[in-house]
């Protein structure tokens, strides 16, 4: 029997710094929806580190869903829920309410429509005061792009011209249109940011 679990090397490097931010900004209890969960490794780690919440992983890709389920079966704590198929860009999500939304490393590795869908979906399902947390590399107005991120941006656009590092101000303006106010960002290792929005 083959093991469906996938591995993302970056997960081992970034999961603890991200978890430290999540412990600060997520509610102590409730449902946390993770959009674009990928391999599922983050979900195992965050559910274990945040035992008071129910962690709901999701992804649009069947192979990713199989990996998430396999990680959950092998190592998942009781508060890690079975993954659901969710396309961030879809106008209707299978989850209709959540107490927080987390999205790691999707905004730059997807078309802009996926980010707009993420913001619209979070705006629909979050109650007032709840947070959307995104993580990844961003461009910022008035700041030169770090050489490593410039190279990464170029490599992403070569893979798919619809991909690439987004301008934080563009994302925040789109978030505002969905009732999500920019709260702050936290600088993270390897020139990444955790960006936090709060539903009005």
Automatic annotation (TrEMBL):
GO biological process terms, alphabetically, are:
methylation
**SUPFAM superfamilies documented for this protein:** S-adenosyl-L-methionine-dependent methyltransferases (SSF53335)
Q: Which GO terms describe its molecular function?
A: methyltransferase activity
Matching Gene3D superfamilies? Vaccinia Virus protein VP39
List keywords of the entry alphabetically.
Methyltransferase, Transferase
Matches recorded under Pfam families:
DUF938
What PANTHER family does the entry give?
UPF0585 PROTEIN CG18661
| Protein name, as recorded | SAM-dependent methyltransferase
């Amino acid at each position: 029997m083959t093991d469906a679990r996938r591995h993302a090397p970056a997960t081992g490097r970034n999961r603890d710094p991200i978890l430290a931010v999540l412990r600060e900004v997520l509610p102590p209890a409730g449902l946390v929806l993770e959009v674009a969960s990928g391999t599922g490794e983050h979900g195992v780690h965050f559910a274990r580190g945040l035992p008071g919440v129910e962690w709901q992983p999701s992804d649009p890709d069947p192979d990713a869903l199989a990996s998430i389920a396999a990680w959950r079966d092998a190592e998942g704590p009781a508060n890690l829920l079975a993954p659901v198929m969710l396309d961030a860009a879809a106008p209707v999500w299978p989850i209709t309410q959540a107490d927080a939304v987390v999205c790691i490393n999707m905004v730059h590795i997807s078309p802009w429509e996926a980010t707009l869908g993420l913001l619209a979906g979070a705006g629909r399902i979050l109650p007032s005061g709840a947070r959307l947390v995104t993580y990844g590399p961003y461009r910022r107005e008035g700041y030169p792009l770090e050489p490593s991120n410039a190279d990464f941006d170029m490599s992403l656009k070569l893979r798919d011209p619809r991909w690439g590092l987004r301008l934080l101000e563009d994302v925040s303006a789109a978030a505002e249109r969905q009732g999500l106010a920019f709260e702050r960002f936290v600088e993270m290792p390897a020139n990444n940011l955790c960006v936090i929005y709060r539903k009005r």
